[in-house]
């Protein structure tokens, strides 16, 4: 992130111009959204590998 501040004088009216430059971080997207989603999707597929005779599949 970078920030620039410039004082501008136009038509006898003082003003300030503030500019922000932001940069994306794609690794944040991968770590926070894509990896957990992929992990949970694969975990859901493992449900079909549980044998039918194993008893109750969901317990509290």
Automatic annotation (TrEMBL):
Q: Name one GO biological process term.
A: monoatomic ion transport
Specify the species.
Elysia marginata
| Name of the protein | Neuronal acetylcholine receptor subunit alpha-6
One GO term describing the cellular component: membrane
Among InterPro entries, the record links this protein to:
Neuro-gated_channel_TM_sf (IPR036719), Neuro_actylchol_rec (IPR038050)
UniProt keyword Lipid biosynthesis, yes or no: no
User: Keyword set for this entry?
Assistant: Membrane, Receptor, Transmembrane, Transmembrane helix
- The membrane-spanning stretches of this chain are 28-50
């Amino acid at each position: 992130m970078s920030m620039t501040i410039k004082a501008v004088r136009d038509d006898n009216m003082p003003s300030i111009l503030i500019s922000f430059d932001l940069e994306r971080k794609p690794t944040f997207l991968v770590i926070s959204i894509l990896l957990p989603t992929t992990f949970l999707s694969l975990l859901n597929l493992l449900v079909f590998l549980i044998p039918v005779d194993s008893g109750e599949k969901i317990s509290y």
